Amino acid sequence: MSNPDPENLLPSILIVDDMPANIRVLADTLKSDYRVRVATSGAKALEVAAGSPPPDLILLDVMMPEMDGYEVCRRLKDDPRTSTIPIIFVTAKDEAEEEAHGLGLGAVDYITKPFHLAIVRARVRTHVNLKRKTDLLDSLASLDGLTHIPNRRRFDDLLKQEWARAARDGTSLAVAMLDVDSFKSYNDHYGHGRGDECLRRVADALRARLQRPADVVARYGGEEFVLLLPNTDAAGALALAESCRAAVSALRIPHDYSAAADHVTLSIGVAATRPPGESASLLLARADEALYRAKSEGRNRVCA
Ligand code: GH3
Ligand code: MG
Ligand code: MG
Ligand code: MG
């Protein structure tokens, strides 16, 4: 096994300044503790910040030709891809009004030139640590503790985002509601611990079926899961749902008390639409109705 590149473990910092000499001073003092990237214009800074992976912090000059630092800050805060990256202004503008303006735009700190390098390092370290903790809390708040897939809160956020994107791009969007068959009797006969283990294995199998990066499987609640499938029409969603049903059935988790089979199975309801048209909640309601039909028609099946 190859060792991970230690460079990739360091937090990354983007230094933005139109004067290469200024960049050099900051880069020299930060490069032993951070992965340093640089941009000599506002436009370039926006491009790097929105790239992958995004920087953990941005040091931003104010006075630059074409686009000044305030405008760069405004645009970074407006873009959901970059809005949470902490920004520290580093500038010769030392009037209180300027500092208040910069902080008012959402920067976490404001350092005036000439600066003391030890103070720059200390402030950078403080804000990078804070950012890491915030990121950790965000990821914990959006994952289901049992299965480690996104939870319902995260699903609701993603549905909103994908709904807006589909409306903007004129693409279709599909969802599927998945429910473990006869899971109450599984718990009753095999115990809650085995029930939990079963939910984890189902979640893993579902995650393994999803091929496209934009596809999401989340735990909707209890023994119910949900798929969010951007850019997918009804036929595509039906095919993927069927492969999910088959994958869980193929686990052959014994279930002697199921109304559907001698092993653990899923019933699935699928719905697709082209936003805006109907609402997102109507789309989910249609998937739920289809799930109800799958149950009443005998379980272990997909309905649309
Ligand atoms: P159906 O085929 O109609 O879906 O029947 P069902 O028994 O699966 O449906 P019901 O909604 O009656 O039961 C769901 C069960 O899922 C009841 C609950 O105890 C169990 N359950 C919900 N969340 C968890 C969990 O986190 N762990 C375990 N072990 N069981 C859970
Ligand atoms: Mg400048
Ligand atoms: Mg249920
Ligand atoms: Mg069930």
Account of the protein in words:
Pfam families: GGDEF (PF00990), Response_reg (PF00072). The protein has 11 helices and 10 strands. The chain is of the alpha/beta class. It starts with 5 loop residues before the first helix and ends with a strand. The mean pLDDT is 95. Bound molecules: 3'-deoxy-guanosine-5'-triphosphate and magnesium ion (3 copies).
Unreliable stretches (pLDDT < 50, length at least 5) are none
Strand/helix succession: HEHEHEHEHEHHEHHEEHEHE
Largest sheet: 5 strands, parallel
The share of residues in helices is 40-55%
Protein name: diguanylate cyclase
EC number: 2.7.7.65
Organism: Allochromatium tepidum
Domain Response regulatory: 12-128
Topology diagram in text:
Elements: H1 6-9, E1 12-16, H2 20-30, E2 35-39, H3 42-50, E3 57-60, H4 69-78, E4 87-91, H5 96-104, E5 109-112, H6 117-142, H7 152-169, E6 173-180, H8 183-190, H9 192-209, E7 216-221, E8 224-230, H10 234-250, E9 266-273, H11 280-296, E10 302-303
Parallel strand pairs: 1-2, 1-3, 3-4, 4-5, 9-10
Antiparallel strand pairs: 6-8, 6-9, 7-8
One magnesium ion (MG) binds at residues 17-19, 61, 63-64.
